[in-house]
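User: I'm writing a short methods note and want a consistent example. For Family with sequence similarity 83 member A, I'll paste the sequence; you return only the structure tokens, no commentary, since I'll be parsing the reply automatically.
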Amino acid sequence: MSRSRHLGKIRKRLEDVKSQWVRPARADFSDNESARLATDALLDGGSEAYWRVLSQEGEVDFLSSVEAQYIQAQAREPPCPPDTLGGAEAGPKGLDSSSLQSGTYFPVASEGSEPALLHSWASAEKPYLKEKSSATVYFQTDKHNNIRDLVRRCITRTSQVLVILMDVFTDVEIFCDILEAANKRGVFVCVLLDQGGVKLFQEMCDKVQISDSHLKNISIRSVEGEIYCAKSGRKFAGQIREKFIISDWRFVLSGSYSFTWLCGHVHRNILSKFTGQAVELFDEEFRHLYASSKPVMGLKSPRLVAPVPPGAAPANGRLSSSSGSASDRMSSNPFSGRSAGSHPGTRSVSASSGPGSPAAPHPPPPPRFQPHHGPTSSPRPHDGPPAAVYSNLGAYRPTRLQLEQLGLVPRLTPTWRPFLQASPHF
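Assistant:
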């Protein structure tokens, strides 16, 4: 009797699901040893070794062409070669922790200590603990709640700390919003970028002539995904596909949206807003990723400020201590405009965000170019405070004007400039 051919885990299941006579088996979520051996072979010996192991293990080709190319392109050598002179006595002591692998499918993660500033950040009082839990979903097809405008409104109304985890960041207008928040309003901004998107971000900075001198209150850092290690010590890192924004420790914006022009105008995305206890999960995830991140631009060792307790004024006096009215809460909520929450296209689990600690009002916006003034005429005094609907027009200025206002590019001085109209998408 001939010996039956060995079948890999995936191939055997494929044959079972194709057959009408085999009863459904209990779901098996254990690791696939054949797949691990094939991945190690691809990482060490290339495509030929990969196909050879698949044939020996009787397994199907479980990697797409894009995945196989990514693994080969991202492969890295072990940090140090094994100490062959030490023999068996040297053993694990001759290697560092990053080159010692357990041989399991998912290598053991490092248990390094977090920086001291993260411990102080974790012990600080978080306003989201006093908020009512809610979830609101926005889709790209909802023209009354444009996702890009919601993100920009969130940035422009942040008053203390803005935390961003992003895979790709090439949108110049959103970058101007962040620069304005950090340089004009004193908001601390910490951006964690996927390692693969750092080159594109630096390319954008070179185009608009942004350097470290313009990032006085901003920390740009890079972070990688999980690390896959072969038994030989070769390894490759995954990507960061998480994307979320934490504003003043009060709410989170998370979804598929990336900071690119295509995502803002062409690609269809989804964006969710979370308040309450759900924010704590994003807070912990960010601190975990920050501990393994590396500085790219801006502040190298930032000190995250603690959130201002409700009813207390900060030392610099930038925020008011008497923030308890409904108008103050509306000013800190980027979704409290005429378009947010007032149209049936917005899906919400909770009808309201609940009573929370009110945010402090923002300082008056910096003076902007007045389009109705001629080059020689004097400005007209305002008859009164501007309407609330138009209190955020600075976020929708053309990119050139935003860069001029921040002093990042030389200001143009034409003899005559036509009337300009800023029309936000409310």
